[in-house]
Amino acid sequence: MIAPMRCVIFDLDGTLVDSEPLCSQAFLDLLPDLDDTVGGLMHRYTGMQMAPVFADIARRLGRPLPEEFGKTYRDHLTTLYDAHLKPMPGVADMLENMSCSKCVASNGPPQKMAQGLRLTGLDHYFGGNVFSAYDVGHWKPDPHLFLHAASRMSVAAEHCVVVEDSEAGLAAAQAAGMCAIHFNPGGARASAKAYAQVAHHQDLDALLKGLVTGAG
């Protein structure tokens, strides 16, 4: 049995909002010579910081990306978000039922995080408790972001549970000494770093209730 949890730290992309396919589609739209698929890009890059993603794509293409590619990519992704972004199925009901404190901690830039939460109607569940790696200068799998979030929420690391869909995020949670739950809707990337794995937010709701009461 693990210690009762006092705070749940959520990743954003692929955990609360269904943004990962859009992030990958943006690359395919802008780089038609990139020989890959949405699913392939998601598998390769989910949870990674943008700089190494851009570097890897440039290596695969055999040419440097345009100097302004970062802005072009963010602008196109904003358009895709506005048109297509949705919350993950069942996430609003799960958040509505939560009794403990909660926050979001993501490798994404603050503006992208704010847009994703606003467009999906999830922003009011977190208020100002939204933390970006860009604000602290450390990206998952470094544990610093999660430790920063725990400190800001005034909860010790051992009483935090992290919900993550990426291997980098799960590694960061493990390094921070936090209980890690692998949110894995596709069921294809089971991780040994996770305390448990769930495929749907309805299952996560039940698991979190057990952890918060100490019944997990």
Compressed to H and E, one letter per element, the order equals EHHHHHEHEHHEHEEH
Report the structural category: alpha/beta
Strand content: 5-15%
What does the largest sheet look like? 6 strands, parallel
Order of strands, main sheet, comes to 3-2-1-4-5-6
**SS elements, strand count:** 6
Overall helicity: 40-55%
Radius of gyration: 17 Å
Globular, elongated, flat, extended or rod-shaped: what is the shape?
A: globular
Number of helices: 10
Distance between the termini: 6 Å
Question: Roughly what is the average pLDDT, rounded to an integer?
Answer: 93
Low-confidence stretches: none
Can you describe what's shown?
- By secondary structure, this protein is of the alpha/beta class.
- The chain has 10 helices and 6 strands.
- A 6-stranded parallel beta sheet has the order 3-2-1-4-5-6, with helices on both faces.
- Strand 4, helix 9 and strand 5 form a beta-alpha-beta unit.
- Helix 1 crosses helix 2 and helix 1 packs across helix 4.
- The N and C termini lie close together (6 Å).
Task: Fill in the keyword field for this structure.
216 residues; alpha/beta; six-stranded parallel beta sheet
Strand and helix layout:
Layout: E1 7-10, H1 20-30, H2 38-45, H3 50-61, H4 69-84, H5 91-97, E2 101-106, H6 110-119, E3 130-132, H7 133-136, H8 144-152, E4 160-164, H9 167-175, E5 179-183, E6 196-198, H10 201-213
Parallel strand pairs: 1-2, 1-4, 2-3, 4-5, 5-6
Helix pairs in contact: 1-2, 1-4, 4-6, 5-10
Short description:
Helix content is 46%, strand content 12%. The chain has 216 residues and is of the alpha/beta class. A 6-stranded parallel sheet has the order 3-2-1-4-5-6, with helices on both faces.
